[in-house]
Amino acid sequence: MNSLTLALAKGRTAEQAIKLLAKADIYFPSFTPKSRKLIFYDDSLEIKMVYVKAVDVPTYVETGAADLGIVGKDNIQESGSNIYDLMDLKFGSCKFVVAGVNKTVYTDTKKLTVATKYPQIAMEHFRKQGKQIETIKLNGSVELAPLIGMADVIVDIMETGTTLKENGLEVFETLDHISTRLIVNKASFATKSTRVHNLLSQIQNVLG
């Protein structure tokens, strides 16, 4: 069967996306978040879902391995993938922020050292401000970097701010608001237009 392929980001995004898809009458009966399976079909066998790491979803969609993807805007922006970002799914809301422990260092240092999971986003942000930076790529516990002198500031996503406060960090600047998005491969948008638009309509109807 020539089904649509949907790349779904693992983790909290998956749980909320599956609930949203169920509201739109799209069910994946064999899916459980803890399953080790990587491919699932909806009950009509018209949608194949591949269950992958969030950071990889834009790549699956850009290369055409998946027609559509559900993933956070943070991963879309960092990847720089050439895809269509068509719909805000209105969950997973958070912010990109610059944070640190000493605002004077942030404002007065000519060349900042920035720790982040998102070096491309950080470089683009500071390039627009005309500031020179050096980035340090970290994959977790980014808040630790300014506390031990590894970096002057961090660029990271913030949902509630609790982790920053508990570690004595202050938000200096908000870069952007982000949320979970539905993205589409450009070729699939043209060659599978009817099916893609039908799926978009089903989801849009439940988003209101």
From TrEMBL:
Keyword Cytoplasm: yes
Recorded metabolic or biological pathway in which this protein acts: Amino-acid biosynthesis; L-histidine biosynthesis; L-histidine from 5-phospho-alpha-D-ribose 1-diphosphate: step 1/9
GO terms for biological process, alphabetical: L-histidine biosynthetic process
ATP phosphoribosyltransferase catalytic domain ranges (all copies): 53-204
InterPro entries per UniProt: ATP_PRibTrfase_cat (IPR013820), ATP_PRibTrfase_CS (IPR018198), ATP_PRibTrfase_HisG (IPR001348), ATP_PRibTrfase_HisG_short (IPR024893)
Localization, UniProt: Cytoplasm
GO cellular component, one term: cytoplasm
Entry keywords, A to Z: Amino-acid biosynthesis, ATP-binding, Cytoplasm, Glycosyltransferase, Histidine biosynthesis, Nucleotide-binding, Transferase
Subunit structure comment from the entry: Heteromultimer composed of HisG and HisZ subunits.
Protein name: ATP phosphoribosyltransferase
Species of provenance: Virgibacillus necropolis
Designated gene of the protein: hisG
